[in-house]
């Protein structure tokens, strides 16, 4: 077997198409420059029997000295701020090590760690990368390097696909239907771990909506 083909074979074997990690974070604001990460949640997802099943979870709260200042944070995030104020300060390199160790424990290794999320590719991953919690994948000398794969399973894309299958682009109506079909998740909608589980249910509802 040619060396390049052998290398590609080994690389392909390292990818498990039936395993993803739902990712969600809570932050002090939307701009990574000057804002902080409060919470990082990962939920292992395994595609079994035609649906996504949740597995192990990683749930980290980072220390902050800040108080909630916006009306939204004051109304919905007081508990997260209070928990973060009591949490120890952990260096980003250690959090990165924990994230990679968690994914490895679940059976996924860098750079073939596949994330899913509501807007993980345009917000969560770039925000984490800016603060040094994760290194996004990139190609160097024709090799993929970094922590997580560049392919992200965006829920927004799944909503768009279901709408297209139905012959339209009204993703809001599709989302409302998926939410109605999803079981209720206890807890706060402004907690990252809660949102990970809720988003897994939405994905499964979308699968059911297009299944014959």
Main features:
single chain; 212 residues; alpha/beta; Nucleotidyltransferase, domain 5; two-stranded antiparallel sheet; 8 helices; 20% strand
Give the helix/strand layout.
Layout: H1 3-13, E1 19-27, E2 37-48, E3 51-61, H2 71-76, H3 78-86, H4 92-105, E4 115-117, H5 120-130, E5 138-140, E6 143-145, E7 153-154, H6 155-165, H7 171-181, H8 192-210
Parallel strand pairs: 1-4, 4-7
Antiparallel strand pairs: 1-2, 2-3, 5-6
Helix pairs in contact: 6-7, 6-8, 7-8
Explain what the structure shows.
The protein has 212 residues and is α/β, with parallel strands linked by helices. It has one domain (3-154): Ribonuclease H-like superfamily/Ribonuclease H (Nucleotidyltransferase, domain 5, 2-Layer Sandwich), CATH 3.30.420. The protein is 43% helix and 20% strand. The protein has 8 helices and 7 strands; from the N terminus they run αβββαααβαβββααα. It has helices at 3-13, 71-76, 78-86, 92-105, 120-130, 155-165, 171-181, 192-210, and strands at residues 19-27, 37-48, 51-61, 115-117, 138-140, 143-145, 153-154. The protein has a 5-stranded mixed β-sheet, with helices on both faces. It starts with a helix and ends with a helix.
Summarize this structure briefly.
The chain has helices at 3-13, 71-76, 78-86, 92-105, 120-130, 155-165, 171-181, 192-210; strands at 19-27, 37-48, 51-61, 115-117, 138-140, 143-145, 153-154. The chain is α/β, with parallel strands linked by helices.
């Amino acid at each position: 077997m040619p060396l390049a083909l052998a290398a590609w074979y080994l690389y392909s074997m390292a990818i498990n198409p039936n395993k993803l990690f739902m990712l969600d974070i809570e932050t002090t604001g939307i701009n990574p420059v000057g804002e902080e990460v409060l919470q990082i949640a990962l939920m292992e997802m395994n595609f079994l029997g035609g649906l996504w099943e949740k597995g192990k979870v990683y749930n980290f709260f980072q220390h902050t000295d800040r108080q909630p200042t916006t009306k939204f944070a004051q109304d919905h995030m007081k508990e997260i701020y209070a928990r973060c104020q009591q949490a120890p300060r952990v260096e980003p390199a250690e959090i990165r090590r924990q994230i990679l160790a968690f994914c490895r424990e679940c059976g996924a290794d860098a750079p073939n760690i596949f994330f899913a999320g509501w807007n993980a590719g345009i917000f969560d991953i770039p925000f984490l990368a800016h603060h040094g919690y994760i290194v996004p994948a990139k190609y160097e000398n024709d090799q993929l390097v970094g922590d997580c794969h560049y392919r992200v399973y965006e829920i927004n894309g799944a909503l768009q696909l279901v709408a297209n299958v139905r012959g339209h682009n009204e993703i809001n109506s599709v989302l409302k239907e998926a939410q109605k079909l999803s079981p209720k998740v206890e807890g706060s909608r402004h907690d990252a771990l809660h949102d990970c589980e809720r988003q897994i249910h939405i994905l499964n509802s979308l699968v059911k909506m297009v299944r014959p």
